[in-house]
Each structure stands twice: as C-alpha cells, then as structure tokens.
Design goal:
With 86 residues, the chain is mainly alpha-helical. It has four helices and no strands. GO terms for molecular function: actin binding.
C-alpha cells in the first residue's frame, strides 16, 4: 500500500498484543479508505477484517486492485452467496 500510493503509514513494525494488532489494522484500513474510496462509505472495516470476514477482505482487496489498476484480469459479473451457520 505504501509503495503503490507513495505514502508512509506510521504504525509500529511489530505488535504482539491483540489490541495493538487491531489498532495497527485500523490505521492501515483508514489509509486504504482515504485512497481507494474517499467519497464512499466502504463496505469493510478493520473489525470485519480482523474477524476474518471473507467478504470484507475480498471487497477491500478488489477495491485496491481496481484503484491501482493491477495488471490482472478479474472475472466479470461475479456474485457471492454467503451462508451463515447457526
């Protein structure tokens, strides 16, 4: 992200506590949001990503791929059905 956007995200290099990891992730997600969706409410947040929500993770990755025009071909008209177990 830093290299692609030409920015520096000020976060500690190594964070061992869960709270520290969440704070670091929050700073990174905020930076991503400012760059890839500055005018829209993103469909992901640090809490969803930290909790391993696969839809949120895919959405942020796809937003970054599209924003930075990654040299990969994404399939068109893809839909995802999510089943939640009780």
């Amino acid at each position: 992200m830093e290299k692609l956007a030409g920015i520096r995200i000020e976060v500690p290099e190594v964070t061992q506590s869960e709270e520290g990891q969440k704070k670091k992730l929050e700073l990174v997600v905020q930076a991503v949001n400012r760059i890839v969706s500055p005018t829209e409410q993103p469909k992901w947040d640090a809490e969803l990503i930290h909790s391993k929500d696969i839809v949120a993770i895919m959405q942020i990755l796809i937003a970054m791929v599209l924003h930075f025009r990654a040299p990969i071909r994404l399939p068109e008209h893809v839909s995802v059905k999510v089943a939640h177990s009780i």
